[in-house]
Amino acid sequence: MSREALVHAIHAAPPAGVVAVAGGGSQLVTDLLTVPGASATVLEAIVPYAPNALGEFIGAVPEQAVSVTTACDMAMAAFERARHLAPTRNDCFGLAVTASLRTLAAKRGEHRAHVAMQTATTTWCKSLVFDKESRSRSDEERLAADIALVGLAQALGLDAELPLPLHGNEHIETRSQQATSDWQSVLTGLAPYVAMGPPLDAVRILMPGAFNPLHAAHRAMAAHAAKIVGADVVFELCIRNVDKPALNYLAIAERLAQFEPSESILLTRLPTFVEKARQFPRVTFVLGVDTLLRIADVKYYGSAEARDGALDELAQHGCRMLVFGRIIHDRFVGFEELEVPAALAAICTGVDEAEFRHDISSTALRGHRK
Fold it and tell me: Is there a single domain that holds both residue 228 and residue 306?
């Protein structure tokens, strides 16, 4: 099948979505838009090329611009944008390409491309490390775009193929995660949360976190909080967090797999503490001083009045906060050192450094994994 015929078949299929490309793969947009019928498929095309543009698009500056994680984050951001542009549709998709391709100066690292797609039911990513220096920039662009076209066609259920001129030592690696119906309901907003693990009679202690990765300090905090409050801790993994990209299904599966069957977890769509409090009044939140400082920061509310209203609502719901010290700028900082609004301080209990201190951080652990 020719490339043009493949694009015609894509345009004839019902789904529509947003396409995002960064650092390579822009030929994909041209392919889709130069074949008649593009308006049936493409709701919008976005090129967040500069680092700050990419950060704004996915919700945070990525640790690495060309990676499986960033491609999937881009696809999720594109999917959510598509749902915003076409709120009555249930067949939206987000398609993304991020690539590091040949440039004028020779690159030390690999030439590679990652193509990801997000729908209401699935996240997938296709990755290729190119045979370095064996193709021109335009040939690498062409191959990255063709991988995206073939992946999109397959995802749409089309019986269509396009020859991909891979060299003998090249192969496309595919990662895919199908969502459970519970995950889908949270992602699409049909449910504010779903519970996993042992059955829950009530949620008395809630420990929100990205858990990227889950580590010994998380579990030690949970055990210490359970001892203080006298109840079991429920971990919360939110698919939409302030200052972080929305979680895709590959990320959700990876994060949840870290927990033991005996541990209770909530997968939620409750990004703010006020939203959490509305669902779980009289709960005790377990958090670090860094998170507490964000709760107190006016920039997340738009005004001091809005922040103060949110803090008052937390108190009205009977919520408490158990606050653990953290390393900030190479120094351990405890709750007693913080300057936060009186309304927030009034619902907090600080855990003394002598009573509990673990300096492990997920950020540092991710750095060691690279």
Answer: yes
